[in-house]
Predict the structure.
Amino acid sequence: MVGDFDASMAIRDGMLDRSEAWDFIRTFAAGWHAPLTDGDGFGEEELQHAEGRLGLSLPTALREAYLLFGRRSALFEHQDPMLPPSELFVHEDLGGVLCFRSENQGCAFWGVSVRSGQD
């Protein structure tokens, strides 16, 4: 850990929108290890390729996360990795869930319904 970053103080007033959440992530990254850089996110082309392959648009918050810190695995991969855009998939057996994170042994996934229409 670097500096005097205090996560509880950083979120004491809560977060009202995604913009505040991304500001927290930037502060957390800088306080935990090193500030985010332009190279820490996936490029727009990679996300568009994934969307074309999947036949859907990524939810706004997920897209923003990939653009901001998707390659910065040290922020989120201590146990269960976030899938790179090339490995995103829709689990149809679950009613159409876009899976974006995997349990480290591949026995569980995190996702969002592609039919919800919500960000």
Remarks:
- The mean pLDDT is 87.
